[in-house]
Design brief:
By secondary structure, the protein is mostly helical. The chain contains four helices and two strands. It has a two-stranded parallel ribbon with strand order 1-2. The longest helix has 20 residues. It is flat and about 35 Å long.
């Protein structure tokens, strides 16, 4: 987890490669409404993020269900780690501070 431009995707891809795991960039899984808001420069609020977090939870659980490990790069700088833990109990958070 970390703010935009902190290197989440770069570090995440590198870690996934080294571990032989899959890589998922959470930004690729925002609902279209969120993408539209971000394009217009409108900040997302927690209500906007819940459908996104639900989608991420589904992705994590699908991989876990198949016995696969993944690295998930995720920017949730305004939400707490406890909210992120709702994605999955199988997740370990690493906070990147630029």
């Amino acid at each position: 987890m970390g703010v935009a431009g902190s290197g989440k995707s770069t570090v995440g891809r590198g870690a996934a490669d080294q571990l032989g795991w899959g890589f998922v960039d959470a930004d690729d899984h925002h609902p279209e409404e969120n993408v539209d808001k971000m394009r217009r420069g409108v900040p997302l609020d927690d209500d906007d993020r819940w459908p996104w977090l639900d989608a991420l939870r589904d992705i994590v659980e699908r991989h876990v269900g198949k016995g696969e490990s993944i690295v998930l790069a995720c920017s949730v700088s305004t939400m707490s780690c406890s909210a992120i833990s709702l994605i999955s109990s199988f997740m370990i958070c690493i906070l990147m501070i630029p």
